[in-house]
Structure formats: C-alpha cells, structure tokens
Amino acid sequence: MADRTESSILIAAAPGHVLDVIADFPAYPKWATDVKKVSVLSEEGDGWADQVEFVLDAGVIKDTYVLDYEWEVDEDGTGVVSWSLVKATVLKTMNGSYTLAASGTGTTVTYRLAVDLNMPMLGMLKRKAEKVIVDAALKELKRRVEG
C-alpha cells in the first residue's frame, strides 16, 4: 500500500451539514484556495457526484484532473467519502478520503491522502506537500462549514 498522510479536525456542525459542504463541488472555488474551477461530469443514480473535474493552481503545481468518488455514508452523514484519480497531466496518483464521525455536538473529520506526481520528488518532500494539502483542506473545510 502506498504511503499516505492523515490528519483530523473537529468541526462544530452535524455530520450531515459537513457532508453537504463536501458534496457541493461547484462551491469549492469559493473556499478551497487552490481550486479554481470544478465541474461535475457524472452523477450516480442516487444524486451523488460520481466523476468530478478539478482545475488546480497551487503555485508550482497546476493541473486539470478527474476524480472518481465513492459515497459510503449513512442517512445522518457519517461514513466515508473516498476518491481516486481517473486522469490528470501532472498528478500520477491522488487517492484519498474524508471519514465523518459524530463527536459530541460536532463532527470529527479525518482526511487521508496519497499523492504522486509524474515528476521525480523525494519521498520526504512528497509527504510534506501532502501534509500541507491535508492541513489546509481541513482548515478551509472547517471555516466554510462553521462560517
């Protein structure tokens, strides 16, 4: 199994509300700093996005990529939203997940991410980049949900 980075954050909102923000892909450019454009390419029969295209501009890394989503969530919003890379130019791998668990009056969100690029990069630098991405994504998600 590939190395991955993992981090968690507590968000002061019900899991269902957090899940709604995660599933609202067209709104990502409003709150996810490096995401410039998002298009839902296909949806499953239950209304959840199946494939989503992102335009990323993270300074040195610019790419347009498509992720395939799996929604293993309960009615209350708890569960796992996972994704895997379908196609990209710069990215070689981008697999990850959000795990949402009820925690008191809020939700603990655990973000797992494994990224690989189509260019050489030291493992130590790759893990550091993943950590920056994961931490920023969790803080931006928290700000969006609680804001």
Descriptive account of the structure:
There is one protein chain. The chain is an alpha+beta fold and 147 residues long. It has a domain at 5-26 and 71-146: START domain (Alpha-D-Glucose-1,6-Bisphosphate, Chain A, domain 4, 2-Layer Sandwich), CATH 3.30.530.20. Helix content is 25%, strand content 50%. The protein contains 3 helices and 7 strands. It has helices at 15-23, 28-31, 123-146, and strands spanning 5-11, 35-43, 49-58, 61-73, 79-87, 91-103, 106-117. A 7-stranded antiparallel beta sheet has the order 1-7-6-5-4-3-2. A hairpin with a 2-residue loop joins strand 3 and strand 4. Helix 1 packs across helix 3. It is globular, with a radius of gyration of 15 Å. The chain starts with a strand and ends with a helix. The relative contact order is 0.24.
Kindly list the characteristics that best describe this protein.
single chain, 147 residues, Alpha-D-Glucose-1,6-Bisphosphate, Chain A, domain 4, seven-stranded antiparallel sheet
